[in-house]
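Q: What would this chain look like folded?
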Amino acid sequence: MNKIAHIFSWILSPVLIPTYAVFVALWVTLLSFLPVDARWGVVAMTWVITCAIPVVAILLLYKFKVISAPGLNQQKERYIPYVVTALCYLGCGLYMYRAHAPMWLVMFMVGGAAAAFVSCFINIWWKISAHGAAMGGLLALMFRILVDGLNVIDIWPLISITILLTGILGSARIVLNCHTFWQVIAGVANGFFWVFLLT
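A: My prediction, written as structure tokens:
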């Protein structure tokens, strides 16, 4: 059970969720009419900015013994990685803005950054779930696409799958003793609120 929980925690890591979200945005909205090569280029750049850079930063922090483990399970070790991740989200938003992406996609990144900064602040007292915040943000983006009529295909199957994966991920974090039930719920609510509000 723990092995499965670890797999879901890594596959649905907060540093990978922006890439998944941008992929969804580029394949289910009007943006799907852009050339395939251009879309894959944006997905790749999103991965570099919001995944590769934070992961390298975390590994460097681990190498220099600033943090005790790359998994960031210690509450007091999360501040620097959270801030780095939030800044990378903002950097990706700037990249998209300069690439003339629609403002709702730019603001998705801003919403993600806002959720990360809030998580960092709350983490002073309470270990709120960053995994939950990331999934909440992904779910909020899909609902925003639906509410604003941006989708060109039926997005409900993707929403249903995302809700299911959010539940599985939350359960995984609890099984691994990384978070309590309410820390997971608060994380999801945090991510959903900021992304839905700002996107």
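The chain has one domain: 2-198.
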